[in-house]
Write a structure and sequence with these properties.
This is Ring finger protein 175. With 313 residues, the protein is mainly α. Among the domains are: 128 residues, no CATH class; 71 residues, 2-Layer Sandwich (Herpes Virus-1). It contains eleven helices and two strands.
Amino acid sequence: PCPSLIQDDLLKMTHRENWKVQHERLHVKHRGHEAMHAEMVLILIATLVVAQIVLVQWKQRHHRSYNLVTLVQMWVVPLYFTIKLYWWRFLSMWGMFSVVTSYVIFRATRKPLSCRTPRMVYKWFLLIYKLSYAVGVLGYLAIMFTMFGFNVFFRIKAEDSMDVGVIMLFYGLYYGVMGRDFAEICSDYMASTIGYYNQGGMPTRSLTNDICAVCGQKILVDVEEEGFIEDTYQLSCGHIFHEFCIRGWCIVGKKQTCPYCNEKVDLKRMMNNPWEKTHVLYGQLLDWLRYLVAWQPIIIGIVHGINFTLGLE
C-alpha cells in the first residue's frame, strides 16, 4: 500500500489503536533477534551493577564531590529533556525556582553573614519541602484515584487523570530532591561562616550556652534586645538550639549530627507526632530518586554506547 495512505490511516486511529499498531510493528521488526536481545540484557545488568558499585564507593570516599556532581546533573538533565520535548510548563517553573534559589544561595555564601540570612534560607527551603511533599502526595492520590476507577464517577478520562497524577508526582519529587540538596550546601556554608561548625575538623569558635550554633544568634533575648523569640530544642548531646533552626538543619538540610559536636541526632525523637515521622521516609525516598534522575540516564547512555560499539543495534 501507498505510504501516504498508511499515514492517513494512522492519523484517523485513536491513540490506543495507534499504540497497538506501533507495538505490533516493533515485534515484527525484532522477531528472530532473541540471542542478541539476551546479550543486550546481560550488558544492561552488568553495567547497572558496576555503576552501582562505583557510585557507592565514590559517595563513601568523596561525599562532597559526589553530591555536587549529582546536584549539577539533577539540575541540567531534566532541562535537556524539557527543551528537547518542548515541556514549556516545566521550563517556566524550573526557571522561577532557579532564579529564587540562586538568590538564596548568593545570600547564604556571603561573608560576613547577615544575622537574618540563615532563617531566610531555611524558610525558603522549608517552603519548597512542604510544597513538594503536598504536591507529591496529591499526585500519588490522583494516580490511585484513576487506578481504582473513581475518575468514571466524575466523567474524567483515565488518560487525563493519570497524566495529572504522574506530572504532580514528578514535580513534587523532583523539587523535593533539589530543595534538600541546595539546602544542604547552604547549611554547610552558613554554619562554617558562623564558625561553630566544621565538617572536617574542630570549629573555629567556642559555643556558649546562650548561642544557637545554626544561626549564631542568642537563644534567649532580653526585652530591649534584637533577636528571635521562639521555642528551643535540646539534643541528646546537651546542646540547645532554636527549634526552627535545628529542624531546618536536620530535616531540610539533611544533617543528622549536632551542628557543634557532630554527635548523631535521632530524627525520630524530634518528631512530635506520628504524622511528622513520614518526613523521614519521604527524605529517604528523595535520596533514592536522586540516583534515578541524575545517574540513570547516564548509565543508559553508556549501555547504548556499548551496544553500538559491539554492533548490537
